[in-house]
Amino acid sequence: MSIFDKYAPLQQRVDLVRQIIGRDPLGIKFDDILSPTRGRIGSREIVLAGTNNYLGLTFDEDCMRAARTAVDNHGTGTTGSRVANGSYAEHVDLEVALAEHLGMPSCVIFSTGYQTNLSAISGLAGDKDVIFMDADAHACIIDGTRLTQASTIRFRHNNPQDLDRRMKRAAGTEGDKLVVIEGMYSMFGDIAPVDEFVDVTHQNGGYLFIDEAHSYGVFGPTGCGVAEEKGVLDRIDFISGTFSKSLASVGGFCASIHPEFEITRKVMRPYMFTASPTPANVSAARMAVEKIRTVPRLRENIKARAERLHKGLSEMHFDLCADPGPVIAIRRPNEAVCAAEWNWLLENGVYVNLAVPPGTPQSTSLLRISLSAAHTEEDITLLLQKFDKLKDIQGQLVQDVLEKVA
Ligand code: PMP
């Protein structure tokens, strides 16, 4: 008997994949990262198409310079939380810049996007409150609800009518109602009908919280996200985001149209009891906000690349999960086949995400592509060529899988 016995089924799953492709896909190591769209494994250069580096700003000269200058000026780490050690000028500057960009009076930044949702959801929902959460909510939204005493009700994915029914059913209950959705869902790349969600939430007396982790920077006329794209940004009660995608750094933010949101700095445990983000991370994100505001070409680039890749893959009859967008996910029949195809792509110079349950909705196995404004037309041509070739050898790969697991 061992403390690890409970993981025997998971270990079997890992072993099976290893038997099929000869490695653990979650243990992949890049020997070098050369640019937002290129990495190196051994002597092979790999096209990166699964990084969430939507605007390609991780190697932007200005973002890199901002991070270096912050290290020179204020050191490598903050060595404590803002509650204990005080705030750095960088923290406050970025909060002001994000609040201005979103047109909201309050914005708090956090050490990661994950902690952002843990903090904000647990800080907002008290024990008598009810949280209504989309069925496909990200792990950190689910975990945020677990940090509260509030009751949680899940509604059907992207379905405002189902939310309406469930809010009406809970109408008599004491306490506030917090509805939590995402702008673009990370696995399928599908978009929430945010405008309808705002109406339903407010008609039922609730507050709307939207996680724009994958959509801030990419959607909306000035890059504020899907809520801005749908024209309802000024009606969103709380908007969260991460620095780890379009903002090319690590950290997260939550902004609100309610100035009273500031009080939660004194109750949010994953804000108060963890070290604040480093000056370098914050300064890189601050510069990225500037780019998002002032360089719309970045958004235009990624949109154009996404449309072309989506069209090409559709023409090859791949089973795509959503309309064209920065995430293009291909549904595969099962984990074993998906892993074999993922591995073939990697061996042929293309990195996409192997996305499997429990990280995916509906227990699907996906080849998940995330695009970047830094991808060139040639990169898209190359991706299309590789997927075309994959299509040709899919039968052979399935045969190989069957032989290996027989
Ligand atoms: N929200 C969503 C929807 C996410 O997909 C993620 C992570 N990919 C996060 C929050 C957490 O962000 P981070 O990785 O920056 O902690």
Describe this structure in words.
The protein has 406 residues and is an alpha/beta fold. The chain folds into 2 domains: 5-54 and 296-405, Aspartate Aminotransferase, domain 1, CATH 3.90.1150.10; 60-294, Type I PLP-dependent aspartate aminotransferase-like (Major domain) (Aspartate Aminotransferase, domain 2, 3-Layer(aba) Sandwich). The chain has 14 helices and 14 strands. The protein has helices at 8-21, 61-74, 82-85, 89-102, 113-124, 139-146, 160-169, 194-203, 226-229, 269-272, 279-294, 297-315, 335-347, 377-405, and strands at 32-35, 38-41, 44-48, 106-110, 130-134, 151-155, 177-182, 207-211, 238-242, 252-256, 327-332, 350-351, 353-355, 365-370. A 7-stranded mixed β-sheet has the order 4-10-9-8-7-5-6, with helices on both faces. Strand 1 (32-35) and strand 2 form a beta hairpin. The longest helix has 29 residues, at 377-405. The radius of gyration is 22 Å and the shape is globular.
How would you briefly describe this protein structure?
With 406 residues, this protein is of the alpha/beta class. It is built from 14 helices and 14 strands. The protein has a 7-stranded mixed β-sheet with strand order 4-10-9-8-7-5-6, sandwiched between helices. A 4-stranded mixed β-sheet has the order 1-2-3-12, with helices on both faces.
What's the helical proportion of residues?
40-55%
CATH class of the largest domain: Alpha Beta
Order of helices and strands: HEEEHHHEHEHEHEHEHEEHHHEHEEEH
Number of strands: 14
Write down the Rg.
22 Å
